[in-house]
Design brief:
Elements: E1 6-10, H1 17-28, E2 31-34, H2 35-48, H3 56-65, E3 68-69, E4 75-76, E5 79-80, H4 88-98, H5 101-116, E6 122-126, H6 129-133, E7 139-144, H7 147-154, H8 159-171, E8 184-187, H9 193-205
Parallel strand pairs: 1-6, 1-7, 2-6, 7-8
Antiparallel strand pairs: 3-4, 4-5
Helix pairs in contact: 1-9, 2-3, 2-4, 3-5, 4-8
Length: 207
């Protein structure tokens, strides 16, 4: 599926995916892709346009026609939404929009296209990277942590809100949040960032 080495990092909100994936990419001198930001960007644009998250066809049209960049900031159709994608309205709607199979198909295609354009390996984080987007990834990692700890890390989201998103993400029909059978599962609740990165690097050294 891809000729570029991929480390796939999955896990629920607040498990440390984005921070750890970005720092791991820097450690390896690889590229980094935050796929969650892509879904959030689509959500932000749809909300700006007054589209209801449940309007599957309208949301799919937004995703199909969107130009999304995640480096150095998050933009969609040249609109900087880096701050906007972390607002409560987006937090509330993103799991509904991400469950839309047409949106997921559009995003997965772009994620795979992005990966093959990278000159070296890439670290990709999300909720279905190891199970759906890159099932042949060099290494699959699934990060987790207690709901309370994840809420503390997020700061902008309550434990109830995070649990609600966990339930939606884990029970959706298409690309549900789950650990791949071959993934290394790491509970980050009581671990610092440096130790988690070192654990992943050691797993890579065994490949």
């Amino acid at each position: 599926m891809t000729t570029t080495p991929v480390v796939a990092i999955d896990g629920p909100a607040g498990s440390g995916k984005s921070t750890i994936a970005k720092l791991l990419a820097e450690r390896l001198n690889w590229s980094f892709l935050d796929t969650g930001a892509m879904y959030r960007a689509v959500t932000a644009l749809a909300l700006r346009q007054g589209i209801e998250p449940q309007d599957t066809l309208a949301i799919a049209a937004v995703a199909a026609n969107a130009r999304i960049e995640t480096i150095p900031f998050i933009s969609i159709n040249d609109l900087d939404v880096t701050i906007e994608i972390r607002q409560p309205a987006v937090n509330h709607a993103v799991s509904i929009i991400a469950a839309n199979p047409m949106v997921r198909a559009a995003m997965v295609e772009r994620q795979r296209e992005w990966s093959v354009r990278q000159p070296v390996g890439t670290v990709v984080e999300g909720r279905d990277i190891g199970t759906v987007v890159f099932p042949d990834a060099l290494l699959k990692v699934f990060l987790t942590a207690s709901v309370e700890e994840r809420s503390r890390r997020r700061g902008d989201e309550t434990a109830a809100s995070i649990q609600r998103r966990d339930d939606i993400d884990s029970n959706r029909d298409h690309s549900p949040l789950r650990a791949d059978a071959g993934a290394v599962v790491i509970d980050t609740t009581d671990k610092d960032i440096a130790s988690v990165i070192e654990e992943i690097v050691q797993c890579l050294n065994l490949r």
